[in-house]
Specification:
Elements (H helix, E strand, L loop, with lengths): L7 E6 L2 E6 L2 H10 L5 H9 L5 H14 L6 H5 L6 H17 L11
Antiparallel strand pairs: 1-2
Helix pairs in contact: 1-3, 3-5
Length: 111
C-alpha cells in the first residue's frame, strides 16, 4: 500500500496495481535523463507545466524503479493507465506533488 508520507503513490497500469516513488536515486536518474544541472533545475523544468509524453514516460518509469520494479522506459511506453493520457498526467502530477510538496505546474490536476 502506498504511503504518501514516504513519497509513494498508488498507480494502476495495465490493469495491475503498483506503487510509484521518486527516491533520491530515481531523482538522480531523472537529472541525468533531462540533463539538469541539479535538483532545482529539474524542479523548474517540471514546474513549467509543459511536459511531453516522453517526459511523463521517464517520470513514471523512474517512479516504478524507485519503488523497486525493473521496468525500462520502453516498457512503460507500452503500458496503459486508467483514463488514458489524462490518467498518465494525473499520475505524474500526483507523484511530483508528493515528492516536491506542491503541484509541479502550480495548476490543478488535469480533468
Amino acid at each position: 500500500m502506498a504511503n504518501r508520507h514516504r513519497g509513494e503513490i498508488p498507480a494502476r497500469l495495465d490493469g495491475r496495481d503498483y506503487t510509484l516513488c521518486l527516491t533520491l536515486g530515481a531523482l538522480a536518474d531523472l537529472e541525468e535523463a533531462f540533463e539538469a544541472q541539479d535538483l532545482m533545475a529539474l524542479t523548474e523544468r517540471f514546474g513549467s507545466g509543459r511536459l511531453k509524453a516522453t517526459d511523463m514516460r521517464r517520470i513514471i518509469g523512474a517512479g516504478l524503479r524507485g519503488a523497486g520494479f525493473t521496468f525500462t522506459d520502453e516498457e512503460v511506453a507500452e503500458m496503459q493507465a486508467d483514463g488514458g493520457a489524462v490518467g498518465f498526467a494525473r499520475l505524474v502530477s500526483e507523484l511530483l506533488t508528493v515528492t516536491f510538496g506542491q503541484p509541479a505546474s502550480g495548476r490543478a490536476d488535469p480533468a
